[in-house]
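explain this chain.
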Amino acid sequence: MSQSPYPVNERGRAVEPDVSSDERTYATLLHLTLLGYLVAPFVMFIAPLIMWLIKKEESRFIDDHGRETLNFHITLMIYSIVLPVIAGILTAVTCGVAFPLVIISVFLPFVLGIVGMIAASRSANRGEYYRYPMTIRFL
């Protein structure tokens, strides 16, 4: 396990000691773009992509949070497509016995997204780095 180049706070999270209030707010807003999932699930990554591209060169804190947000948004999009398909196949194979899995698979990405968004937004607002669980790292 590699050592973080950043100081660690009492919660065991790496923190950026020189991060400004504006950077924390911007990183928090990056995570809150996940609320777009409620409006347009399959284009939800466009807002954080634009925000990240605009500010990624200005701050390594924003760059890190932007990458993490995009990875999470893309992963949720994949989960939203793949999980119901797998549950549907299982339902067909079991002649409907596995139907409750279809309902769970539809809501699971939504719940994971809300919980993750809240945790990441709080961490960004405190100046901490954050890693979403169950996220595929594309960037």
Q: What stands out?
A: DSSP finds four helices and no strands in the chain. Residues 21-125 form one domain. The mean pLDDT is 90. Residues 6 and 70 are 22 Å apart (CA to CA).
